[in-house]
UniProtKB/TrEMBL annotation:
Residues 56-224 form the Glycosyl transferase family domain. This is Glycosyltransferase. PANTHER family: GLYCOSYLTRANSFERASE. Keywords: Transferase. One of its GO terms (molecular function) is glycosyltransferase activity. It comes from Yersinia enterocolitica subsp. palearctica serotype O:3 (strain DSM 13030 / CIP 106945 / Y11). One of its GO terms (biological process) is carbohydrate derivative metabolic process.
Length: 247
């Protein structure tokens, strides 16, 4: 941010990945109103489409029955992602005897909190429901296998992983951190940061949606990403910016 503060006047316009980030930079004096705009990163939505066949294959590989809810979270095992928040929320969820079957939580990622988080899941008595699967190159397939995607971050810029999950028609529960709300819109559930009770309740609510409700919400999420964060739409955004300065 310091570099922006001293170089802001050298550029006609600067960009950042979310409006939240733009507002933060302006508030902290790293840029000024009108000199920075939000242009989020885009994804190739065709690479993150849902496949029922891949869902069945991946669930079989994971040893999970079709009627068992899978909750998926993807991200570095660092403070920013606030996995203690997710594990606390999940422990509350497991204690809820209104669920028809116990969900399974799969956490994808590596980081210096790996050991700490695994110990935490044991202390909560939820380790048989939580699986840390490290670094993976089959994220789309895991998203197909999952029912709900959760992002429990304390702070964010603009997490591409949530747009990938939306493109894969996932039901999303996320915290109100950084550009998450901008990405998700009304296509999922947003809860306050560092509030495991609200996070647990939101996940519980999403698990209990009917299959039809889940399908409608998933389709809505994918359509939103195609319209706002597909590579094609982001290219259009950049071309519009370049055209303005070419005149």
């Amino acid at each position: 941010m310091l570099a922006y503060k001293y170089t802001d006047k050298l550029a006609s316009l600067s960009t950042n990945v979310s409006q939240d980030a733009v507002d933060s930079f302006i508030h902290k004096g790293a840029s000024s109103t009108g000199r920075m705009i939000a242009v989020s990163n885009g994804i190739d939505a065709s690479q993150f489409d849902f496949s029922m066949d891949e869902r069945k294959v991946k669930r079989s590989e994971l040893g999970i029955f079709n009627d068992t809810p899978i909750i998926l979270s993807v991200g570095r095992l660092t403070e920013a992602k606030d996995y203690p928040n997710l594990l606390t929320a999940f422990s509350l969820l497991i204690k809820d005897n209104s669920l028809q079957s116990f969900p399974q939580l799969f956490i994808v990622g590596t980081g210096h909190l790996d050991g700490y988080l695994k110990n935490m899941s044991k202390e909560f008595g939820i380790d048989k429901y939580v699986t840390f699967i490290g670094q993976r190159d089959d994220i789309r397939q895991l998203m197909c296998a999952a029912d709900i995607f959760v992002l429990s971050s304390e702070w964010e810029g603009f997490p591409l992983v949530i747009t990938e999950a939306m493109a894969c028609k996932k039901i999303i529960v996320a915290t109100d951190a950084g550009g998450i709300t901008e990405a998700l819109g009304d296509c999922g559930s947003i809860v306050p940061i560092k509030d495991p009770n609200s996070l647990s309740q939101a996940i519980n609510k999403m698990i209990k949606l009917s299959d039809n409700e889940k399908e409608i919400l998933g389709n809505k999420a994918r359509e939103r990403i195609i319209q706002t964060n597909s590579i094609e739409k982001i290219i259009e955004r950049w071309m519009s910016i370049y055209t303005q300065f070419k005149k």
